[in-house]
Design a protein that fits this description.
By secondary structure, the chain is an alpha+beta fold. The chain has 25 helices and 26 strands.
Amino acid sequence: MPRPPASPTALTTAASTASDPARTVGYDWEGSLPVVQALLQNVRDYAIFVLDRGGRVLTWNAGAQLLEGYSAEEAIGLHLSQFYPPDALERGLPASDLEQASANGRFEEEGWRVRQDGNRFWANVSVTALYDPRGQLWGFLNITRDLIARRSGEEQLRESEERFRLLVQSVRDYAIFTLDPHGHVTSWNAGARHIKGYEPHEVIGSHFSRFYPPDAVERRWPEEELRRATLEGSFEDEGWRLRKDGSRFWANVVITALRDAQGTLRGFSKVTRDLSERRQQEDTLRRGEQRFRLLLDGVKDHALFLVDVRGIVNSWNEGAERIEGYRADQIIGRHVANFYRPDDVAADRPWRELAIARDSGRLELEGWRIRQDGSSYWAKVTISALKDEQGKLYGYAHLIQDLTEQQRAEALASTVGKTNEFLATLAHELRNPLAPIRNAVTLMGRTGLGDPVLEAMRQTIDRQSGHLERIVDELLDVDRIARGQLKLDKAPIDLSQLLAGALEASRPLIERREQQLRVSIPERPVPIRGDGLRLTQVVVNLLNNAAKYTPPHGQIWVTLTPKDAVIELRIRDSGIGIRSEMINRIFELFVQEEEAQRFNDRGLGVGLALVRRVVELHGGRVEAYSEGRDRGSEFVVFLPPASAAAVEDAPARAAPAPVAGATAHVADTLPRRRIVIADDNTDAAASLDLLLQSFGQDTRVAHDGAAALEAVAQFRPHLVVLDVGMPMLDGYEVARRLRSLPDGAALTLVALTGWGQEVDRQRALQTGFNHHLVKPVSETALRELLTSTAAAPPAGADPGAGSTDGQ
């Protein structure tokens, strides 16, 4: 059979066939098809497809694919019977459905249908006959809706979706007529003739109360309906009505007051639907409206609502309620200006924006809006003008998104980025002056001052500069924690050995405060896989906290207990304790107990946050306990164990980190090396020069990049220590130039800098440096550097095996 004409103007329903004068009230497909097509592009809850006269699929929409399971390629060409269960086929379906639609113009039913995967679903199906302009049947329009779990909330959108119902319903299903201000019929349409049975000449001029049963007339219900419609603008009711033959039918009635531009009441429009004979059809429509409503309400991050040409709200979704704060019954019927700030209202902004949307068709903007509670929020607003087929404006669609949190997040991200940059810069600026101070203190400790008072002052400077160095390290740890960039270098270690080393690191502070330390550590290894330096930092932080916040002569207990499923490390003290309301906050950044103010050494409130993060990165957890003020506190670290064999290969990895301020008393057995030091900070360069000379090293000092290149050329060093931040010619450029020399590959280049983040280390290594040292460099670190580079040849010598790997 040839396909019907492709032109949409060839489509009509049975109700508009010109050969039947009684069916002249039809649907204007040519005018409404663009609207219907636009609507169908967004409808995914309806299977809508066209069949040829024999019942085979010609078109297939996205809703059909979602509902039936077939893709368009699979469905086109299938017979309608493919979607019916076997028992329905035995009853002669769908042939009888198509016959009834062909005979009556339309057929509707509910029943079981089958998806591609064989599952059944209960469906509402309407089949409409399609005719060409000559009145010849050429196919059918099938609309299928899934009714499972779709049976609630059927009444909410009657009035706000009236235009939608009129678009998809044949006007023959509605009795539409007008009344004068006193209730006399002034017009009468075909739907009214069909539903009520009167011809126009029989009813025009009579009072509309003739359509009501006697009991309603006696209680003057028709007059009450007009009164309410006059006051409210419209009135809707359901109840019994009478046909011409005296039979009753259950009707839905909408009465709307008609006023002219001056507000004078000119009459009423009255729309009546027969719900007794069309109950099944209307129930289906209401369920469809509910699905449409659920679709709108499902968009909870956007406010979606409609306003009329004056700006009066006439629909409202859950997203609008969430963003604006109004319930539908609180805002529908009120002006959109309620969402604007008073100064915007005073400047006529709501009305000017509607005018712009009216003239241009669409307006997108961002600005402040206010909620019902008066609070402001930053909104992204789209206003679209709604026009009918003749181009007449009938309202506006509003789409509003609350961007307040996004704006705050962007501002926070910007602030965090600036904070991170500030912390890195601050750490760099603090480390530069710290370097000569620490070098000078170390050198004074090596040479000896001979005066007890001077030695006491040197030790004070040593302790306080060490404390300042720890603060700088904590600042960078804050940055790493905030950005989630705290990384671990895991290896098998013995936790008991690590704990013993951490205790030695914290013992000077404990002894200085004359506190009693009671330790219980197993003699056998306690294997764990972790980062030895970071875990040592955890234990030292907890021990130092216990010592700092426990009064002199107090007690500290340390217990390590390995169990089958977990290792428990308990550090308990008799100190100031923790208030109950602070227990859950004590591990947050920059949070400290108020009682800590009694002690001078409070720190930044970073240590416990770092402890928690490091422990969590090891797959464990940390908990705090306290009975309250001055009742002491206990911190318990839970870590997952490893096998005993795991620690045999790497015992050195468990060694504790060097303690700031501690001097390594190691005999000066280092080989004599030639070293060039380049730093624009003269104090830092001079102090490092003196310290290296005390190690027996041969040094030369330069204070800019050009001088450094000249010193290397003349001195032919083994090592070149470069400050990367020198002006004019920085350390990176000096390193690149040195590497480009014929013997440059043999040099050992050391980046000495206050920039200590991982990105700084990677940049140094990628530029050509062998090592990256962060100021201030401890004596131990310098000794390790000199030892590791002892085999490096001087510049100009045979490079041999190449440079030393600083990683």
